[in-house]
Amino acid sequence: MDKENPKSFRSLTPPTRIQQKSYESLHPPIESYQEKPKELPEASHDHNSQIHELKSTSSDLTISTGSSFIQNLQAESPTYPRINKSDKTIKRAFKLLFSESWVVQNGHLITYVGLYVFSILVWFRPYELIPSLGFLSATAFYVALATLFIFIPSQFFSEGSLTTFPVEVKCVIALMILAIITMFIGKDFARSWQSFNDTFSKAVLVFVIMVNVVRTPRRFFSMLFISLSIAFIVSFIAINLYLKGEFKVEGYRIGLDIGGMFGNPNDMALHLVTMIPIAFCLMFVAKNFLIRLFFLGSVMLFICAMMVTFSRGAFLAFLISSAVLAWKLGRKNRLKIITTFAVGSIFLMLLAPGNYLLRLFSIFIPQLDPVGSVDQRRGLFLRSIYVTLRNPWGIGLGNSRIMNDYNLEWHNAYMQIASELGIVALVIYLIFLISPLKRLAAIEKIQENEADWFYYLSVGLQASLVAYMVGSFFASVAYNWYVYYLVAYAVALRRIYRIKKLMQ
After folding, report:
1. Mean pLDDT throughout 333-347?
2. Residues contacting 213, CB < 8 A, separation 6+
3. Does any domain span residue 188?
4. N or C of the chain: less Cβ packing under 10 Å?
5. What range does the domain containing 28 cover?
6. CA 158 to the chain's CA centroid
7. Are residues 213 and 358 both part of a single domain?
8. Distance CA 79, CA 74 (A)
9. pLDDT tens digits for range 166-187
10. Cβ contacts of 297 within 8 Å, gap of 6 or more
């Protein structure tokens, strides 16, 4: 900074020689205190004037050039929002959003494509519907392997760690560790390894990948589309089988040719009942009237398909999750909503097919059950409690069948976890289910006045999780795909919402 001529800093362009001379004539330079050289006054004055002129011009040029460079640099660089420096997760999210690295921008895109293809193969199982596509059964494994290999380096480049660590991810990692430990202390190592390798380990890995990869609304809705599409397809097939009178289970219940998750009518009904709240809330999100009608029709289709499965647990889950929807979406007119819900439930029960009402009442009156499944399940439930108390650290993954006289699983996801992985695992599993509910409720509360898609889907996912929590009390599905996709949707919605709010 030129202390001898402070006003030269006000100009962003170099002054002309005439301007400089004019300025010097009005404001003679102030010399700093120093010992004067023994030279003639005239020569010294001329010499100092030339030096002062050179310094002033050079200083202004430097400032002008520097200022222009800074302005251009600020105009070209992106504006980063102010964030809390202590929150490393947010900083990593912004680093991902604004980074220019090709790997960061495109690595997770490739991972997402692999995840999407794998999910289609898992949910739709086209090789079971079309025998000529049998080669795809092995393709699913290679797609999963390739997706994992792409995910690991792209995740490290983007966030510097193998995964983000919300509560839900910590819970599934803890469950996997306990599953491995109980293999060695359980009853049958081979059976435990088969259960671990068959579904559980894959479900956990897909869950972790989904939590890290599904970061945009487009990816979120695309993944939801897969779950809703398979629900639509199996609903159509189930109703068609019922109308044709093809009952493959117990002589009066439909059974699908699609194996895996939907071969059991109770498991199929559980998936349908978790998709009903999501489809219902998407009806409010849609802007187009025809799309709204489509989602309304999908809801009715899912309900009808759920009922022709004659699943008692799914029907109870449907009633309770519908009550949650009515309570949350009808805050301003709860009395009317509750009245409408009660009347609709009674009307739906009256329209139920065949002996559906008798099957529902058999939950409380076992004599109404023609096949005695109620007494059997009650016996399995009591036996699971006994096994859990005798083996608090678990009997090993998948060993429930060898611990009862029926050679059956417990038909209860909570006792499945408690007896096979231990009481500590049951606590972790409950945290895994309750944690997303609390955070979705927080989004619902914040967005209540705006009523945007975040609000409706936070409510819908809450109701879906409640439906799973009720329905899984009657099914051994703790290691199956259903809950891991639902919780992954909840975590993805939360991350997308958080980034959106920070960007504002």
Report:
1. 78
2. 108, 111, 112, 115, 151, 219
3. yes
4. C
5. 1-32+44-67
6. 18
7. yes
8. 8
9. 999 999 999 999 999 999 988 8
10. none
